[in-house]
Amino acid sequence: MITFDDVTLTHPDGAGRVTALDHVHLVVPDGAVTVLTGPSGSGKSSLLAVAAGLVRPDSGRVLLDDDDVARLAPSAAAALRRERVGVVFQQANLLPSLTVRDQLLVMGELGAVAGGRGQRRRELREHADALLAEVGLDGLGRRRPHQLSGGQRQRVAIARALVHAPSVLLVDEPTSALDSERAAEVVELLVRLTRERGTATLLVTHDLDRLNSVPGLERVVRMSDGRLDVPALR
Ligand SMILES: Nc1ncnc2c1ncn2[C@@H]1O[C@H](COP(=O)(O)OP(=O)(O)OP(=O)(O)O)[C@@H](O)[C@H]1O
């Protein structure tokens, strides 16, 4: 679960400051997708950055389960992010020279042992292949990114975000590079994985109109000028 408790974030802006998040209260529960939408500049990316512990708010608490990422030192926030947070971006950001399976194996601790041999390496490959099957890419582990469609590349990015079995999934505009059908499929996949794995998923999108056929997107919050619609979800 992610809990934003009275979170305010400002940035320097010339002589003054611009308010990106203005006393935000929001709960992102486990096992459901919470959709965050709103116009450009309304504060959506700022909320994700704060949840990931990449940016420290001026005030308020940001709880990942029971840990307040807003109060952790940068190194502790980075460790928490590695262990408990999965992130999916607008572009899949895959490494062009690596196979699909190796995109998963280079993650963190897996990367360290993936260079090894024997039993452990076999287990990790099996883990990667199982994840690829889970996102609908069964048997495509040996392909490289240029041999995949945009929707398939985004699925690899989702599988990569799940390598460490995160409890929190932060997803930033995953469908903006996809046609409507592919966009709906990718979000359906996120809804299913969120339910099956029990992750607290926060999905930022401009694309709500194209996604209204997707079941399981009932929790929608809108931002404008750094504030959430009232009543905020609790
Ligand atoms: N590093 C920064 N320095 C100064 N101002 C910033 C910075 N980051 C964001 N802002 C400002 O904070 C506000 C919120 O920006 P944010 O990027 O969170 O909005 P957004 O809703 O994600 O926009 P978009 O949909 O265009 O990505 C905007 O006014 C933006 O100009």
Question: Which key features would you list for this structure?
Answer:
234 residues; 7 helices; globular; binds adenosine-5'-triphosphate; ABC_transporter-like_CS; nucleotide-binding
CATH class designation? Alpha Beta
The total number of structural domains is: 1
Low-confidence stretches: none
Give the helix/strand class: alpha/beta
Helix segment tally: 7
- What is the 3D form? globular
Using only CA atoms, what is the Rg? 18 Å
Q: How many strand segments?
A: 10
**Distinct ligands:** adenosine-5'-triphosphate
Could you report the average pLDDT, rounded to the nearest whole number?
A: 90
Keywords: ATP-binding, Nucleotide-binding
Protein name: Putative ABC transport system ATP-binding protein
InterPro entries: AAA+_ATPase, ABC_transporter-like_ATP-bd, ABC_transporter-like_CS, ABC_transpr_LolD-like, P-loop_NTPase
Domain ABC transporter: 2-233
Compact description:
This protein is α/β, with parallel strands linked by helices and 234 residues long. The protein has one domain (2-228): P-loop containing nucleotide triphosphate hydrolases (Rossmann fold), CATH 3.40.50.300. The chain has seven helices and ten strands.
